[in-house]
Amino acid sequence: MDIDRVGRLIRPGLASMRGYDPVEPIDVLERELGRRIVKLDGNENPYLSSPRARVVLADYPYYHIYPDPLQRNLREALSRYTGFAAQSIVCGNGSDDLIDLVLRLFVREGDEVLNAPPTFGMYPFLVTVCGGQLVDVPRRDGFALDIDGLRRAVTERTRLVFIASPNNPTGDVVTADEIRQLLEMDIVVAVDEAYFEFGSRTVADMVHDYANLFVLRTFSKWAGLAGLRVGYCLCHERLASHLLTIKQPYNVNVAGEAAAIASLEDVEYLLANVERLKRERERLSSGLASFPFLHPYPSEANFVLCRVSEKDTDITVTAARRLRDGLRLRGILVRFYESEGLRDCLRISAGLPKDTDALLNAIGEVWSEL
Ligand SMILES: Cc1ncc(COP(=O)(O)O)c(C=O)c1O
Q1: Does the CB atom of residue 94 touch ligand 1 within 6 A?
Q2: Is the CB of 168 inside a 6 Å radius of any atom of ligand 1?
Q3: I want to staple 111 with a disulfide (CB 3.0 to 4.6 A). Which of 5, 99, 107, 308 is the partner?
Q4: Distance between CA atoms of 102 and 100, rounded to whole angstroms?
Q5: Whole-angstrom distance between the N-terminal and C-terminal Cα of the chain?
């Protein structure tokens, strides 16, 4: 069989699919730019992982043994951290894996999944991969969720809605009342709380009252384990048992599992870093707001979304994009989106105080050269 014929066997929805837009690896960029990078584009944790996790990984004796498919030790440790029974917890290869698993559990080819852009790009990506039909209900001006619009968009083919809270990239959190209105629509509601530790609210308690609610979280942000890929989900125990059945048996690897358990024994240390990042987020916000052309949105995550005024009337390339490019040449990475409603915005992660200083100094310089 020649390659063209094999190509024609690829599922139609996947053959022409656009891939996920990832951030570039830091070593590749450092080599390309020939300098130390100030990395404020990936919402990673600049305080690194817990020292306890690093010691455990260095001494771990069982790398040659497969992980526990039932993730017993990690789920027990998470039970102590979250207050949920271990039977209501399932872990994944990052929370991305849980987004994928929840989709696989409920969405058949052609089923509809509601999405509230601008939001996390993994939802459209994974809905497409599983053959679902994405239905966008854009946020209103100022990025508030359009709950009435979401409710009106529900049809008999709707299976699921994704709501990130705090939302990436806007930083706002959903209220319990908004989630209740969606839960009452008889669809599955997946609330993605990847940035939960940086915010003031969670809807996790509602899992006890609503079997159609899944709450997804991760060790990537607060615990600095983005590279080891560990996330978890809180849900009704019967649904947890279905997720455990359909997941890849070894989805969480032994290094991720050991590091996550060690992190849960080092919560005080990690949450002190979260507090540092929350303070830095506020300092970053006020620093950005001190430029007349920048307009940061309030955020409860470890980043700030910032609108950039246009500098002139020719906006074929927005000032936000040119600012991103100018910062990049100075070794400072921030996130720009080539998508509807965001082309005049930059998303900037909270970093170390010296990173904020470098960024704020560079912004003035780059702007004057645009
Ligand atoms: C809203 C949201 N959910 C999930 C993730 C992914 O988390 P993980 O690293 O656990 O896959 C991110 C990462 O940026 C995110 O912003």
Answers
A1: yes
A2: yes
A3: 107
A4: 6
A5: 54
Residue where one domain finishes, among candidates 215, 246, 266: 266
Q: What is the rounded distance in angstroms from the CA atom of residue 217 to the CA atom of residue 56? A: 23
> Do residue 207 and residue 286 come from a single domain?
no
**Structure tokens that stand for 94 in this block:** 């990052």
- Ligand 1 in reach of 226 Cβ (< 6 A): yes
The atom of ligand 1 lying closest to the CA of 230 is 10
C-alpha 93 to ligand 1 mean position (Å)? 11
255 with 308, same domain: the answer is no
pLDDT digit string, tens, across residues 255-294: 999 999 999 999 999 999 999 999 999 999 999 999 999 9
Please give the number of the atom of ligand 1 that sits closest to the Cα of 92: 10
- One-letter-per-residue 3-state SS of 33-86: HCCCCEEECCCCCCCCCCHHHHHHHHHCCCCCCCCCCCCHHHHHHHHHHHCCCH
Length of the chain equals 370
266, 283, 301: which is the final residue of a domain?
Answer: 266
Domain co-membership, 152 together with 277: no
Quote the number of domains for the chain.
2
- Domain of 95 in residue numbering reads as 51-266
Is the C-beta atom of 43 inside 6 A of ligand 1? Answer: yes
Q: Give how far the C-alpha of residue 83 lies from the chain's centroid of Cα atoms, to the nearest Å.
A: 23
Mutate-to-test residue for ligand 1 from 96, 162, 349, highest number of ligand atoms within 8 A of CB? 96
Residues 104-159 have pLDDT tens digits of 999 999 999 999 999 999 999 999 999 999 999 999 999 999 999 999 999 999 99
Which ligand 1 atom lies nearest to the CA of residue 301?
16
201 CA to centre of ligand 1 in angstroms: 17
Same domain for 249 and 139, yes or no, is yes
Amino acid at 108: R
43 CA closest ligand 1 atom index: 14
Residue nearest to atom 16 of ligand 1 (CA): 168
